[in-house]
Amino acid sequence: MTRNPRGAQETIDRREALRRAALLLGGALAAPTVAGVLAGCQAARVPDGAWAPRALSRAQAELVAAMAEHILPETDTPGARAAGVHRFIDAMLAESFPPSERERFLAGLAEVDARAGRTSGHRFLQCAPADQRALLEVLDREAFASPPVPLSTTWRGGTSDEPAVPFFRTMKELTLVGYYTSEIGATRELHHAPVPGRYDGCVPLAQVGRTWAV
């Protein structure tokens, strides 16, 4: 039996994905994001009609997909939706985020709909694309108005007395990392060149060794 030669290169790609996301966000990534990526994703590769979210409702998954597509829209390369970023985010919430952080994320989604209702009179998905972008731009400015919370205070077992990371920062972080660790992101953005055979973006933690931090 021969050893899979792709492991080392894929590990580098996942580390590069985390590095790029951290640079774009201007600071450290949250511990659940780093741990989840290095442990390997569990998002199922099934057709859209057969995929079922685990942490999100279907309506929440569609909201996440729409927001992610605004963050990384389709241009000359596929956007976040085509890369399955919403599936990645659902998997991360289900497997890597402690309950308190998962509930914060879901509360953030609810607040997006509430703010859309206050400004446009409709839920986010029913708003015009221009109104959707305008709201996300406001959320982005608010989320990044202050310096990022240090990694050591973003997640310590999910205790409630730690500073809360703004929802949209978490959303943007997961979108960027999900895109760069997808097959589309790796092959078209990170220029991943795998040996002949199936691309496998999920690298078990055992292949990585000790936890790597951004």
Question: Any descriptors?
Answer:
globular, disordered N terminus, 214 residues
Overview of this protein structure:
With 214 residues, the protein is an all-alpha fold. The protein has one domain (7-43, 56-149, 163-203). Helix content is 56%, strand content 0%. It has 10 helices and no strands. Helix 1 runs antiparallel to helix 8, helix 3 (58-71) packs across helix 4 and helix 5 (99-120) crosses helix 8 (167-180). The longest helix is centred in the middle third of the chain and has 22 residues, at 99-120. The N and C termini lie far apart (34 Å). The model is unreliable at 1-9, 150-161 and 191-214 (pLDDT under 50).
Brief overview:
This protein is mainly alpha-helical and 214 residues long. The chain has one domain (7-43, 56-149, 163-203). It has helices spanning 7-25, 31-39, 58-71, 85-95, 99-120, 129-143, 151-154, 167-180, 183-189, 205-208.
Low-confidence sequence ranges: 1-9, 150-161, 191-214
Give the helix level as a range of percent: 55-70%
Strand fraction equals: under 5%
Silhouette: globular
Summed up, the helix count is: 10
Which structural class is indicated by helix and strand composition?
Answer: mainly alpha
- Radius of gyration using CA atoms only: 17 Å
H-E order: HHHHHHHHHH
Write down the overall mean pLDDT: 74
The termini sit apart by: 34 Å
Can you summarize the main beta sheet?
none
Number of domains: 1
Query: How many extended strands?
Result: 0
